[in-house]
Amino acid sequence: MRIDKRLLAGVAAALAVLVVAGVVLVRWAADRTTVHSIDGLSVEAPAGVDVALTRAEPPTELPGLPNMAPVGAFTDVEAGELPEGRHARLTLSYPDTLSAEEVDALYALRHDGERWHPLPPVSVDTQERTVTVATDVFSTWGLGTWRFRERLDAFVNEVANQFSSDGIFSAIGGLTATPPTEHCPVLPLTLLVETNEFVDDTVVCTRFRREDETRQTYDLFVSNTKGFPVELTLPDGVTYEEVRPAPSNAYSRMIRLARMLHTGNRTVVLPGGGMLKLQVDAAKLPHVDQGRAAVQGRLDVVTPVLELATAALQLATPLEPDDEVVRTIAKAQQMMDVVGCVADAAQQFVEKGERTLQALEGWFIATLATCSPAVEALAKAFGQALTDYVYRKLRPEAFPELLQNAGRFVNVFNRVKVLWENAHVVTQVAAFMREALTNGPVGYRLSLARQDPPLNLLDRVLPPPGTEMYLVEPDLQEFYEVERRYGTAARWPAIGYACQDQLPVRWQDSYVDRTDRRQLYLLANQSRTDGRMNDVSTRAYVAYVPPEQRDTVKSFFTNLLGVTRCTHTEENSRTDATAFDVGEWPALAVGFHTRWSPYASEPSEGSMVAAYDERGYVVVLEAHRGSIFTDSYNQPDVSDDHMAAALRDALGYLGHRADAMLGTRFAPT
């Protein structure tokens, strides 16, 4: 059977038309919508979605939105489930009594069953007096206008009374600055922190970062007890971690992030009444013998100006930007332009050296005027980002009308800015910084250096007399003061001495060069009388082992761990030693009860513990029955178990103290 080619061509053409027509028909059906109306509101929803509209009682007030005024009618909107990826458009009417200012500040209001949520319009038709929004959630809807003048008046009153850490001016601490502080009972001796050229009465706390096995990094907490902010430039080896209290104000977070981005994370702000947490990498600091690294500081005039400028952003809208908007605007070129403009002006102000209140207030006003074009460009970008954020889930690119919102927001912003600049808030801000202007230096300096090992500070590991039950007998005060600071290796207690015949390493060989009696350790010691065990006293020692001696000392302790009982006899004496359990320690730790018997007198008894840490530090405690200086005839009757308990307690205390000050790992965590 022959088929006419012309017939085939005609059939193919017809099929093509049908296919195209089918596609068009399907697309038209998918986009089809139905409009449902009630007086003052209409809902355009996808075809097939049932919508019910009921007039609702307008609210007399809006909890959570004290400066929002309800406008026009409110409607309960109930609807079936929308197809995936689809939304509805609500068009709400507003009365002709609203001014142009109130129309620019219109927001749709949606109640979620608990509170009201403001939404910026997708579009506003001033001819028809309607506001259109897009949504995929149905509930009670209406309109409200943001009364920014009332919000501004309330804020000006707040400023006149006291600044708040959660308010717009988060960098200024208020009339009484009480910063958060970290509790550091003792400070690491291996990091030098000098505050004599820094802000008066600054509270500094440092501690080792426990997660750092090398013990080269520290947490540095700096608390500012003054009300004015300080701009800090960080040197190599110092990085920003966090600020406390963290401002709940999104605009303050935006400013802080923008400033750090603008300077490559080298500039941070220590707020008035606030605390900074910094991380210090000591490996990047100079040794104390070679100089100091410095955290350079100066009175921060940049942040208050930025907060004055962006205050108008916050007062112009009831919406609170989320973290994504904060990051978007902080990184935006418009924000970088504002920060750069203010920072340049601040540098000129500092270089002039004017230190009067009038000069600062005049500079604030002049800088706000100079940077006004950049701030207005920022307002437009911010208004757009804020609206895009609200409609993010509904794909803002589907609403080209949203571009109009930035213009309406800028209109409100400019009105707020004019009112703001005439509210004399600048005077209030400058007045709060009077102390820094009149009494503070031009610049501040927090000096840092590495001092590891802290040989001249080892005595500080031991508590001073009179603290933590550590005592010094009055008649030996001078002796202790000298020995505590300048103890020598020759006076090192004989831990393991009785066992030296059984050890492959002699204790003396580990710390004394017999040829020239060269001192290889710097020692510190102190006595401790335990109030709960006042029939036992201990003497504590701390020593540093030079790197070339550490293998010998480590071997010595390792060998002692396997010894249970041993005796050493010399010409005129005999020493017996019996090991006891010291407990679980990360460091190498040993304990012995000893009995020393000179042939010509009564025997003397005591106990001792010692521990060695890989960083090269040794702690030793000698325990005596009664006072350290009680003779053998008058020693109280104390059991070995009692002695061991006293030593374990003392070693635990001293080990924790050494860990916090030297970065050792003596004590169990």
Secondary-structure map:
Layout: H1 5-31, E1 33-38, E2 41-46, E3 51-56, E4 68-79, E5 88-93, H2 100-104, E6 106-111, E7 116-119, E8 123-125, E9 130-135, E10 140-146, H3 148-161, E11 191-197, E12 203-208, E13 217-223, E14 230-233, E15 238-244, H4 250-262, E16 267-270, E17 275-281, E18 293-299, H5 302-315, H6 323-331, H7 333-352, H8 357-370, H9 372-390, H10 403-421, H11 425-432, H12 434-439, E19 443-450, H13 477-486, E20 512-513, E21 518-519, E22 523-529, E23 536-544, H14 550-560, E24 565-569, E25 573-579, E26 588-598, E27 604-613, E28 617-625, H15 640-662
Antiparallel strand pairs: 1-2, 2-5, 3-4, 4-10, 5-9, 6-7, 6-10, 8-9, 11-19, 12-13, 13-17, 14-16, 14-18, 15-17, 18-19, 20-21, 22-23, 23-28, 24-25, 25-26, 26-27, 27-28
